[in-house]
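Quality-control log, excerpt.
Job 1 of 2 completed; input and output follow.
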Amino acid sequence: MAEQPWGQPYPVRPQQQPYGQPWQPAHTAQSAMRASHTDRDRTVDVLKAAYAEGRLSREEYGQRFDAVYQAQTYGQLAQLVADLPAGPVAAPFGAAVPGLPAAYGPPVPMPMPMPMPVPHRPVNGMAIASLALGVLSLPTLGLAGLGAVITGHVAKAQIRARGEEGTAPATIGLVLGWLSLGGWVLLFLLAGLGVLD
């Protein structure tokens, strides 16, 4: 064994796996736990994604798919997806994740970000016009009622198509407009029948 210039032997490197060997998950107590149907379904999802991305051939996908439903433990499932980018469950397959060193102290909670304000939907202009004409139909003795009905129906169609606000003003304008038109129709009917003489 060769020595370093100061007289100590060079450290021996641990035996490394050859490059052709797939990664094997660390043996933990969790890798011996029995797998559930949900774990198998997640593993199948990873295999489906790998097949769709071209990482697995059709034959290899079929073999692994059959092996998933024969697997009984987390470790067996982990071996089926060990050479793929994601495993069926993140936590149980590797060695324990080390925490922060004590020098960093306890975790500090992060402040919650301010919520984004919800943009207000604009009020439809035709709905406002329908409401105004509906209200004006009272002092004008119903003359503005036809305009209230027309603008109210146009406003309802625009509100549905554009997702705007203004359903209530359009409805109020429609009701007032139809009442004034109904009043005029009733007046003409009564006059035509000679009741008003």
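Job 2 of 2 completed; input and output follow.
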Amino acid sequence: MTTTYTSPFRVRAVAPAVLERLRLADDAGLTPEPAVDAEGGAPLRCCLRRSRPGERVSLVAYAPLRRWAAATGARPGPYDETGPVFVHARAEDCPGPPAGAGHAPALGLHGERRVLRAYDAGGRILGGRLVQLSAEEAAAGAAEAVLATRFADPRVALVHVRAVEYGCFLYEAVRVR
């Protein structure tokens, strides 16, 4: 007998339509300034991977909760945050997220400290959790377990994962209905 695990969430990169607008003017109203990432390693939110040396990237201000609220009718009020994200400078340089990325929560949860903030369907915060996993723990499924724990609360509609030190938005996990 085979047991199939269905994740209660799906990880999402920044949507292509949103990226198109952010590449013109970010959520702080600023015009992005593309630059060559000589060393590589920037966490790209358009394709959910790290940049490679020589890729052109832009650091833009992004308000993920505001955009989610606009699409769902939620009212996050004071929890609406704007933070920095790296994206490919041009759409044609971005391959998009890899197939199966919707269930790749280990991405971005190992290494530095991360905060996972859970929100209800109305956009109100339900709490946060500080996480720091080794690459081995993340690869062994600990990242999936951390996110699944947040979604065990039936009030949780989405979880934002951010880097603690710089406040960068890493990705959003949304409840699968």
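Post-run check on job 2. The radius of gyration is 16 Å.
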